[in-house]
Amino acid sequence: MRTLAILLLGVLSSLPGAAGELPQTVKLLTEPLPPLSQYVDGRASGFSVELARLIQRQLGEGAEVEVLPWARGYAMALREPNTVLFPTSINDNRRQQFDFVGPFAEVRMHLYGRSNDASRPKDLAEAASLGTIGVYRGSPAEKLLLDSKIPGLLIAAFPDQSLRQLLAGRIRFWCHADLFIGPLLSKAGVDEGQIQPVLELKRIGLYFAFSRGTAPARVEAWQLALQNLMQSGEFARLHRQWLGREATALSANILWREQ
Fold it and tell me: What are the DSSP calls for the chain, one per residue?
């Protein structure tokens, strides 16, 4: 712990700014994605939001977290330096735009079926042969299915539309991330017992994404602070509190932007 604190101070001292001044803080952007990020009583909260605040506390930063629609936050992060967009999954295009720290959470992409459906497909191809698969536009689940070239997808504008289609029998399976099922069902007034996971497709790590123009030393400082939290037990406590399960074996890595 002492060694990490010394390293953090050393990294921060290399950031631009006059001696004795706090380093310029970063802009923090997230999207409405409970339980990771959300607005409650006019204030941002959620697992990833509280984790970012703990990191800021270690680094002496104090920016407020802005909760914006994903498209707006992503556009801002593409054009503005010193911006952190989270939680963010990684794809080839984003690897050329951002530096990443994490992963700090993991989502498991599942196919869900109705609870009275006894089918258990062994893979995506078999699932597609049994009926239509639904997904919502712009989600990691949509990309996964499109990359797999699964035919006959029913793509909805919002995740609750896919849920309603599943319950109404318009689709046989629904592809969605496990972390977000509970809040979505609660908001829609649907009992959890009405659906069930039938096939795990993929596990996806979620990261803090740092925009172009953010000093590498700041990225390194966030990585060290996250590592510190993971080793201290604070990360595990926060994970249980917000996500209701033990943290998987995650580590605080840096993935530098591909040139």
Answer: -HHHHHHHHHHHHTSSS-TTSPPPPPEEEE-SBTTTBEEETTEEESHHHHHHHHHHHHHT--PPEEE--HHHHHHHHHH-SSEEEEEE---HHHHTT-EEEEEEEEEEEEEEEETT-----SSHHHHHHHS-EEEETTSHHHHHHHHTT-SS-EEESSHHHHHHHHHTTS-SEEEEEGGGHHHHHHHHT--GGGEEEEEEEEEEEEEEEEPTT--HHHHHHHHHHHHHHHHHSHHHHHHHHHHSS---S---EEEPPP-
